[in-house]
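User: I'm putting together a teaching handout on how multi-component assemblies are represented. Below are the sequence lines for each component of a complex, exactly as they appear in our records. Could you produce the 3D structure of the whole assembly as structure tokens, so the students can see both representations side by side? Please keep the chain order the same as the input.
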Amino acid sequence: MESVFARLEPLLPRVQKPVQYVGGELNAVVKPWGEDAGTVRWALMYPDAYEVGLPNQGVQILYEVLNEQPDTLAERTYAVWPDLEALMREHGVPQFTVDGHRPVGAFDLLGVSFATELGYTNLLTALDLAGIPLRAADRDETHPVVLAGGHAAFNPEPVAEFVDAAVMGDGEQIVTAITAVVRDWKRAGRPGGRDQLLARLAAGGGVYVPRFYDVDYAPDGRLAAVTPNRPGVPARVAKHTVADLDAWPYPAKPLVPLAETVHERFSVEIFRGCTRGCRFCQAGMITRPVRERSITTIGAMVQAGLEASGFAEVGLLSLSSADHSEIAEISTDLADRYQGSNTSLSLPSTRVDAFNVTLAEELSRNGRRSGLTFAPEGGSERMRTVINKMVTEDDLIRTVSTAYAAGWRQVKLYFMCGLPTETDDDVLQVATLAREVIKAGREASGRRDIRCTVSIGGFVPKPHTPFQWAAQLGHEQTDQRLRLLREEIRRDRDYAKAIGLRYHDGKPGIVEGLLSRGDRRVAAVIRAAWEDGARFDGWSEHFSYDRWAAAAERALAGTGVDLDWYTTRERAHDEVLPWDHLDAGLDKQWLWDDWQEALDPDAVDVEDCRWSPCYFCGVCPSLGSSIEVGPTGRRLLPVVPAP
Amino acid sequence: MTDSPPRGRVVNSPAPHPQRPVVQRLRVQYAKRGRLRFTSVRDFQRALERALRRAEVPVAWSQGFSPHPRISYANAVPTGVASEAEYVELALAERRDPEQVAAALDAALPDGLDVVRVVQAEGPSLGELLTGPQAASSWLLQLPGVAPETLAAALDALLAQPAVLVPRVTKSGRTQVDVRAALVSVQVGASPANGPGEDDACAILRAVVRHGTPSVRPDDVLAGLTAVAGLALPVPPVATRLAQGPFDEKTGSVADPLA
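Assistant: Of course. Below is the structure of the complete assembly, with chains in the same order as your input.
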């Protein structure tokens, strides 16, 4: 397959940051295209700009896992910015991979990792540039199978019209299984064409093929049923769970970009899943159960990753990194190991806990101190009970006092606005809390120049969470509450200067809400917005609420439902949700009961099942998985540098 | 949207770490080739720092709250321009054999960022050798879609002018550079056809250009040709720096800065 680079190259001097399109990263792989009929070729796409997509762990892991397989090749493609898109259209250059600069349309599979729903329009641009029909129904067997993954794929219904299939959960094992199905079908001479290939993929039970399911609507516009329309297709499709992370130590050869990206470090996922039970958190719900990587595997991965990349920083990733059963040993041993090597270690944990500060101090022994961020999420005690975030004001004050006393001059606090049952007062209490933080910080440090930054975002209800039934707060009310908060922070001049406020307006959250909890009818909205120029919707300079609102009005005319129906409407217990046939392992009745407990002022906290008895969320029995945590009791040995 | 962001720089750093002293300085000549000519100066800096770590070259680090590797960069080509003659100086905390550093560093850098040679630093600084009117570069410009005769005629027109001023935006604002004054010598050629059936014209321009403040760059020369003679460039040209160093007035050539 010929490279399109010779046609792309003359366009590059005319675009911003051309280096993002040339590939050539350290540890990138360009395998021969292969003549064998059984060669399976994947194009992996992160549907955002290269600078955001390159560091993505999911894509890097699958890229490596696939390229290690014989007769399999994987290359990467990212969203091109509008300046290059226009030139590619003018000069007939197709969507390309950055590895071999091969046309995406020539691959067998196009796997798209949706970390967020705001990447949907970028998929349409890529399909269009690749010459792949936008509608899956219009494709034939010469076109790649378009496969969605990532967290947003837990409700792929809004893009069901554009993707051939979706996969939920961990990708390490299922990509090889999919590759085998495609290989067998190709070797057998592609019997039954595209339909037969998709049927074979669906038959395994772990690949969702939307075209094999019919959606019926009730007269009031709600869903009536989602049912398989052919035999051999499961009624519900299950997510994938890798039980033993030690058996999958990827990325082993991290991609080192030439262009500047959002994360310039080597990241190791120290565990997957989270059972703290925060009711707003989709990631915590859909990645259960908790599976730890052992201290020894983490140590080996860090060492090998640094040697293979030359990165000067290591990130210990997870949804709540301070919760690893041996995090103290990991921090101490890594800090010892890299003493004097100008290697920074960072722990992107937001747990409100003095222990977290101790860990951060330990990790910063050798180099730069990263910022400290804590996420109380709710401004008032009441709100934090509703969302099951078990943090008291005392916890927060104790934690920030420790941080300021230890020399940090600035901490960041994360909050959400628009949570269920929230009132203006709940949000205003963010200001009170921030003042208490500054007061405590001034006392603990004995200085006046300490600061705190309050970062507050609009809450978007997500599928497979206890808040999946909740009404989203309208953007006008969100903006009004944030305005009140800003005034409240400014009111007390003694503190106002020490408190920074960062927030986004409520409009992008409404579009995200539409795309998160939408059904198949939303596809027409996405297409209309895209045709009207929607691109890079996660970027405020490219996002247009008016464009989306107009697209929704046009595309949903006559359906009886509208933008508000999808976003600010509370759902009833008996309502069929668009993702009910997609099994994240969570028992729907448990989610409902948890939602009811959130609304009950007298309800008690739901404890973490790692340290408390099982509360029957349903994941472990339904998926045959179990919690995999230490401690192992092992320690890391110092690595002696070569003489 | 940001409201009253924290003002001033807030340092969250612990006490500075002691760093090892400098015991040796090495000068590296490297090339920026092919598609990697699209790397910016900053892109190269990151790639070099990582390659030095992978190659285990014992670079010395600066003292202070945010230590950084002690590497001096001088007069790099702009993004999109290729080069056979870029230079950096490394300060090392342990002595190393320059040839071994060259081999290890070249292996650790991505293909297209290639080490040409490494020598022990001596004499005037890289900045003194490579910047100012006493220094010059030798350039090769490939101009696809331009006939050699057209280019030759445009050059004649430019050389006939007493001065050719081209606007340039720099960090300190708008200024002008005199392309004519900087141009020491030019030579026009034609590249052989790229392949069978390809008979598109591709003029080749070789030029020796004096440095200055700011330095005249290949795109300034082309802008001068367009301004004076209306030279049209249907396809973006590819520029390559072949050499840079002290300008030898007697021979009119560029001397080796590492000699």
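A couple of points students might notice: Chain B has six helices and twelve strands. Helices of chain B lie at 41-54, 98-108, 126-130, 148-159, 179-182, 218-229.
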